[in-house]
Amino acid sequence: MVPAARAAAGEFFNGLLKVTERTIYRLAAAKKIPAFKVGGTWRFSLGDIDRWIKQQSREVLGTGPDEGGAATDQSHDGERK
Question: Cα(25)–Cα(30) distance, rounded to whole angstroms?
Fold first, then answer.
């Protein structure tokens, strides 16, 4: 990534997620956020990041997955499976 683009990516994530560029790359390397590498350079899809943010928000709020989401292995009557 050229320096200007790298700085723009860092500023973008800092504004969007309120974390440093270094944290973003650590999360990407740990596969905690959606990212992929092209020629050794991390790339991020805005659509994937947007969906990830929404998913994280649902999990924190406890609202669960939206339509088409994965089913959980929990019983609704409180019993374990």
Answer: 9
